[in-house]
Amino acid sequence: MSKKYHFPEYLLEASAQERVDYFESKKIEHKILKEVRKKALSAIMSSVDGPIIMVYGPTGIGKTTLCEHLIDVLKVKQRSPGDIPVAYMEAIKQGQKAFDWRDFFCNGLEALDEILINRKLAPESVIERREQAKSKLLNRQPTTIDLRRAFDSALINRSPYALFIDEGHHISKAQKSSTALDNMETLKSILNGKRTKFFLSGTYALLHMTDLSAQLNRRSCEIHFRRYKYDDSEDMEEFQKILVTFERALPLPIKPSFSNNIDYVYERTCGCVGILKDWFTAALELSIEENDKTLALDHLKEKQLSNKKLNTIAREIAEGELLFQDDSVDKLHLLLGMTKLENESDKPAKKGNQKPGARNPTRDPVGTEAVNQ
Amino acid sequence: MNFRVEHSELYSLEPIGLDGPYRESLTSYITRLSTAHCLPNKDFILYLASRSKPLGNIKAAQSFFADYSRTINGYTHFAKEFSEIITELTLVNSILRTTMLPFIKLFDSGGKGLLKGTKAWCSYCYSEQAESGNEIHDQLIWSINNAEICPIHRAQLSSKCPHCKAQQPHLPTFTPLGQCVSCGSNLASKSDGQLTQLLNKQHCDHTDCILQLLSISYNEMKCVSHERTIKNIHYIINETTKGNAKKLNTALGFGESTLAQWRRGRSLPKFDQLISFLFKTGVDVKDFFIGEVSKVALNIDRLDQKIPRPKRTRHDHKSIEKKITEILASPGKPLSFKAATKMLEVSEGYLRYRFPKESEQIIARHKNYMDNVHITQEEKTKRKVTKTIKDLHDEGIYPSQVRVFRPEFGLSRSELMKPSIYDTWRDTLTELGYQL
């Protein structure tokens, strides 16, 4: 006998918040997520791959969900009670200002559950500031150096396999490319001599980071978290499955069906599972609010993203996917000097670019020559 | 989203050398732990205190560092509470062994004569630790009273900075291990780069006995019993002086009834006395505590080596009483109780115990005087406030708090905190017709 509902039945009687929370916490394992998770795990555990792992993809693809999945796997790999096998933080960008490392270290220390962050004092600072009054030492705020030392020490002593940095593309955002490069160099230097890996997840803007330096390029591992593509039949089949799974997970008395509206659903999500889930969550909230027994197309339409927003997302995806395309091998050959430049003589004769009827710039005969002619 | 993983609150650092007698001390472990967390010891100790109910009263950290921090390595209250809270926060179970707590059953519970007042260290050990890239740490044995030489290098333990001659605390408030708290220089070497002089290999002191004690393993300690110790004391007294405890007391420089009390099980030995007793009678420490003493070799040379302990000063009570009378009768500014003890060259405890009435008189006299001084000062300030307000009023300026309480008028804003001064300002303004 098949199950009537694919969710615990008590939810039908539960409060609106509880039902929405249930749906929000539902994790769906889909094809691309599995692929990316496998690659990411192997990169984290590998001793060959570089210390910086970058996962990029369009907004709302499910990068944070990927982090959650990976954290679940890595959580159990604790070696000693003091270890934190995995930690999660966000790289926060404040307005148009340069990336704030002080803020980054504070967030990192918070992610690693560090104590007394506002009292940190690097051992070398004690020596440098020996001349200062003890009261001054006590009442001071930690400097960026103090926080950096504390962050280094936390990474050594907590030895996480990976530190997840969501919105990692913020680190590379700087007004000058030299600053962006400095930021990336700093990020790399933090990991020197440590076995932790930084797992940066972000939009396609992350791709610019590796372009900044060859060394960084070599020491980083890139993973593309792509969307489901409309022109790929396998992808669309999987997307349909995901849609059905979400429909089943909605804690409503009657299961909705949008299989006939797959094109509409795809159009409003750009093939991104994260956007689909957020959209369904908002629509579910509305449906429960209106005491409806199922999720109708109207609910979806009410909560759909505007065309303007979707256009921005689609444009970013298109630009990002273009960036992700590997450079041609000819370009590599040319840079390495493996392709000979063609001889001047082999080149086809240059065609004139004069206007029709204009004379060639030749010297006109003068004197007796002109008379003879 | 739940990204939290269960883990210890503090880093799970392993104490160094736990399996042997050269184990790290708890004060050293705490300093290493606070350095790893990039925190000054002072903040770290206050944090530990905030997490432990019995340690909750360590609010004035300065007095803790000055007076009690050394006891962390012993077996009294602070040793117990600190090792418990650190075990709880680091989830490292062996913290207890960085103190003398495993030996608590063997000695007098007061812990007198157990630990040195200031830190001692071996420059050779520090140099070796630094050269080999190991973390610099202090050994537990260095902090124990009567251990004057390094058991590894047979070098005299240092107790003062080779550069500025400052004594070092067991638990510094800021400075990392291996550096002088006063001048910041390396404690491993002298200013000329030389290390302390090595002693003769044959040189022996109580250090070896303490080393033997520390080499008793944690499991072996479980076999220790009070009955066995008493039995062994009996045996030693019988072997050396044919049961005459008094004679042995005299030979060892102990009080008349010390050994008799131990033998009857009426009191547990003080740490330094027992170590001295075992050292001078040539008894193996391990045999004494966990086995049976079969060999006693009363060493005549060793009998001359008395325990270096501060000499008890005998006071001339009559002359002190005379001086106190003079102090009480002297006109002019009366002395504070502290100043009086300093002048009389006696401790505060002595004065309170021996001359309780006179002590109270000294305190009351000084208090009266100080109260009068405060009242006079307050009156003076009140007059100044009134005058300033009237001057400003005459000039047609509103005498606000900011205008009145200015250094040029000899008044500071902090004086406004005193209710009487505030009332004066307020009343004067009301008198002048201002509405507040």
Q: Would you spell out the secondary-structure blueprint of this structure?
A:
The complex is a heterodimer of chains A (373) and B (436).
Chain A: H1 16-25, H2 31-45, E1 52-56, H3 63-74, E2 86-90, H4 101-111, H5 123-128, H6 134-139, H7 144-158, E3 162-166, H8 177-190, E4 197-202, H9 207-212, H10 214-218, E5 220-224, H11 233-249, H12 262-269, H13 273-289, H14 297-303, H15 307-324, H16 329-336, H17 368-372
Parallel strand pairs in A: 1-4, 1-5, 2-3, 3-4
Helix pairs in contact in A: 1-13, 4-7, 11-13, 13-14
Chain B: H1 26-36, H2 41-51, H3 61-68, H4 77-90, H5 123-131, H6 206-214, H7 218-221, H8 226-241, H9 245-252, H10 258-264, H11 271-281, H12 285-290, H13 300-303, H14 317-329, H15 337-344, H16 348-354, H17 356-394, H18 401-404, H19 419-431
Helix pairs in contact in B: 8-10, 14-17, 16-17, 17-19
Description of the molecule:
The complex is a heterodimer of chains A (373) and B (436). In chain A, 48% of the residues lie in helices and 7% in strands. Chain A has helices at 16-25, 31-45, 63-74, 101-111, 123-128, 134-139, 144-158, 177-190, 207-212, 214-218, 233-249, 262-269, 273-289, 297-303, 307-324, 329-336, 368-372; strands at 52-56, 86-90, 162-166, 197-202, 220-224. Chain A has a five-stranded parallel sheet with strand order 2-3-4-1-5, with helices on both faces. In chain A, helix 1 (16-25) runs antiparallel to helix 13 and helix 4 (101-111) packs parallel to helix 7 (144-158). The mean pLDDT of chain A is 80. Chain A has 17 helices and five strands. In chain A, strand 3 (162-166), helix 8 and strand 4 (197-202) form a beta-alpha-beta unit. Chain B has 436 residues and is mainly alpha-helical. Chain B is built from 19 helices and no strands. In chain B, helix 14 packs parallel to helix 17 (356-394). The radius of gyration of chain B is 30 Å and the shape is extended. The model of chain B is unreliable at 191-195 (pLDDT under 50). Classes of the chains: A alpha/beta (373), B mainly alpha (436). Chains A and B meet through helix 3, strand 2, helix 5, helix 6 and helix 7 of A and helix 2 of B.
